[in-house]
Every structure is written in structure tokens, then in C-alpha cells.
Amino acid sequence: MSSELIMTSVDSDQEAKVVVSGEIDIYTARQFKEKLYQFVDNSTKDIVIDCSDLDYIDSTGLGIFVGALKKARLTDRNISLENIRDNIRKLFNITGLDKLFIIR
After folding, report:
1. In what order do the strands lie in the sheet with 79-82?
2. pLDDT digit string, tens, across residues 12-65
3. Which domain range does residue 37 map to?
4. Has residue 1 been placed in a domain?
5. Separation CA 63–CA 14 (nearest Å)
6. Widest Cα–Cα separation across the chain
């Protein structure tokens, strides 16, 4: 079973930031999707997702990231990912999602 998923948000003048901790998998996907989509809907700025404490993500989680990016782009906003661990960055590279997202 997966570890707990924790999301916190920080708002600045230029961007809205979400810090994700734990694991995003089939067990935590619903919670993650609801919170992330709500965050995208309520923000008017570009969004940065800090993945420094994200331990694991499966294909369900990757799909949620893509869905959130599509929602953001409907209103000319973008989603950037930062502080991605090597194992998760490798998934983004293998799946080609590193071409969709700004990774910093």
C-alpha cells in the first residue's frame, strides 16, 4: 500500500506553488486529482509543482499531471515541475512528458 500523499500550497506575486509529498499511485490518485484540479481552477497564475518530497508516481499520477496541464492551458497558463528526483525524472523522459512540461 502507498504512503500518505500531502499537498500544500504557497502563493506569490508571480506564481502559485504546490508542494507534493509522498506517493501518487492508484490509492492516492483520486485525492491528488481533486486537490490539484481545484488548485488549477482557483489560481489565475502559472503553477509550479515542487516534487522534492515526491517519492513515487505511477501512470495514474502522470495522467493527472497531463490533465491538470490541459486545464491550465485552457486559460493560457502553464505548469512547471521543479526539484524532481532522478527516478521520477526518468519516467518523464521515457514517456516524453519532459517535452510537455517545463522542468526546472
Report:
1. 6-11, 15-24, 46-57, 79-82, 102-103
2. 778 899 999 999 999 999 999 999 999 999 999 999 999 999 999 999 999 999
3. 6-103
4. no
5. 26
6. 38
